[in-house]
């Protein structure tokens, strides 16, 4: 199988000699992965592949020499990808914090809400339920390794795993909101009926 056109452009930009270009390509990929590893990125290998893909696409759409050193340009792309990954990690941390705060704040204080949570979880598919229960159990490097194991078990990339998690969270949140709305609506109706009954009661004799 011949390399794709963008990859061919990248190899040619690295070195006209195919063997040296292949060596430089592998070296560049390792350096980028190392850059992500040092900066605690979520998935250094996959992010390095993303950088290489973006670099190859850019080289394939520009004239030779327009971007200068491919290695230096790749580092600039890597910095952008790292910022994107850090934003994703912060969103995940906020989600995990919200989830933990929700369960801790309501434990023993709002049995109805916890009951709604259990009922909604029971309605979800087994894989969604398992994903939600296991995804937030770890932090730091352990979290990254744990998430990688989950993605491998499910045959997904980390990005696909995050997307599946977000869909499951959205579905769970909607279910809880529906159940809470039903409960609040029922309570409101009962309260209104009580008030109306009170208004209809005979006046006390003077």
TrEMBL record:
<keyword id="KW-0731">Sigma factor</keyword>
<dbReference type="InterPro" id="IPR036388">
    <property type="entry name" value="WH-like_DNA-bd_sf"/>
</dbReference>
<dbReference type="GO" id="GO:0006352">
    <property type="term" value="P:DNA-templated transcription initiation"/>
</dbReference>
<feature type="coiled-coil region">
    <location>
        <begin position="151"/>
        <end position="178"/>
    </location>
</feature>
<dbReference type="InterPro" id="IPR013324">
    <property type="entry name" value="RNA_pol_sigma_r3/r4-like"/>
</dbReference>
<keyword id="KW-0805">Transcription regulation</keyword>
<protein>
    <submittedName>
        <fullName>RNA polymerase sigma factor (Sigma-70 family)</fullName>
    </submittedName>
</protein>
<keyword id="KW-0804">Transcription</keyword>
<dbReference type="InterPro" id="IPR039425">
    <property type="entry name" value="RNA_pol_sigma-70-like"/>
</dbReference>
<dbReference type="InterPro" id="IPR013325">
    <property type="entry name" value="RNA_pol_sigma_r2"/>
</dbReference>
<feature type="region of interest" description="Disordered">
    <location>
        <begin position="182"/>
        <end position="206"/>
    </location>
</feature>
<keyword id="KW-0238">DNA-binding</keyword>
<dbReference type="GO" id="GO:0003677">
    <property type="term" value="F:DNA binding"/>
</dbReference>
<comment type="similarity">
    <text>Belongs to the sigma-70 factor family. ECF subfamily.</text>
</comment>
<dbReference type="GO" id="GO:0016987">
    <property type="term" value="F:sigma factor activity"/>
</dbReference>
<keyword id="KW-0175">Coiled coil</keyword>
């Amino acid at each position: 199988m011949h390399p794709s056109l963008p990859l061919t452009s990248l190899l040619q930009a690295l070195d006209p000699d195919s063997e040296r270009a292949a060596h430089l390509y592998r070296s560049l990929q390792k350096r980028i992965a190392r850059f992500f590893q040092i900066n605690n990125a979520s998935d250094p290998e996959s992010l390095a592949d993303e950088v290489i893909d973006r670099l190859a696409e850019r080289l394939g759409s520009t004239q030779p020499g327009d971007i200068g050193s491919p290695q230096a340009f790749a580092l600039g792309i890597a910095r952008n990808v790292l910022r994107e990954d850090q934003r994703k990690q912060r969103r995940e941390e906020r989600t995990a914090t919200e989830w933990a705060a929700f369960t801790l704040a309501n434990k023993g204080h709002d049995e109805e809400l916890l009951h709604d949570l259990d009922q909604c979880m029971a309605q979800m598919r087994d894989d969604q339920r398992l994903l939600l229960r296991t995804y937030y159990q770890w932090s730091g490097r352990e979290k990254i390794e744990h998430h990688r194991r989950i993605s491998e078990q499910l045959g997904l990339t980390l990005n696909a795993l995050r997307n599946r998690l977000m869909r499951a969270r959205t579905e769970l949140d909607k279910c809880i909101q529906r159940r809470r709305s039903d409960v609040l609506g029922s309570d409101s109706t009962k309260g209104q009926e009580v008030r109306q009954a009170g208004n209809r009661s005979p006046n006390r004799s003077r």
